[in-house]
Structures are given as structure tokens and as C-alpha cells.
Amino acid sequence: MASMILGLDPGVTTGWAGLLESGAIVGTGIVKPDSLEVTLDEIIRRVHRADHDVEAVVEEFPLAPAGQLAQDLREVVATVNRVLHTYGISPFRVLPGQWKTSAVGIAPILVNGQAIRCSTHEKDAIRMAKYYLSRRST
Fold it and tell me: pTM value?
């Protein structure tokens, strides 16, 4: 069964991107914490209805020990983990220093030869998914 790669850039605004194994971008978006669980659930269900597996790549980053932002980010990470676990998806976790410094991390994102227009969070999710694909094929 073919897979869709789901790149996730968790944060106060979470970016997501869906890529086919060929690297073709099939969807991107940004989502706020209050709708994150529902949105991720809908994305995964749609992919499964299309008879594709989901492979997820999630950015992992150190969190401050205290403060409201740190607590908010912990809740986002917990939501992502809960949804993925519900579907039996074990994500590939990547540190920013791994993918951002890679050839994929610094390359422009093009669709049909044109630079893609989307948020920084979506671009990060795309690049993480492409990084995962480049590592997966080695």
C-alpha cells in the first residue's frame, strides 16, 4: 500500500504538509491548537479512505522548563502524539538542526517550477517531509 508522508511543524501555529512518496505535495495548512486534534484526525481519515498509509515526521525541539508558552507547546506536542498514537502511527522525530542544515532544508520549494506560496510553518513541514523521504530512501 502506498503511503502519504505527513510532515508536522508543531507550535502555537502548527504547520502540516502531505506528500506522496514521489515527493509531490498533495496538501498543506496551518492549524491553531484549539482545532489541532480534529484537523489531524480528519487528515489521517481522508488518507486512509484513499487507501494510503500515513507515515509521520514531527519536529522535536527542547522546551523551556516553565512558562505559559512552554505549557502551550507541551499541550500541542501531547495532542499530536495522542492523535498519531490513536492510529498506531510511530512518527519519525527530527531535530531542527538535522533537517534545516540538510540539502533539502535549504532548497527552495517548487511546484511546476514555481516557488510555492505558503506560510513558514507549512514550508517547514514540507521540508521535514522531504528530509524524511531523502533519509528513508538511503
Answer: 0.91
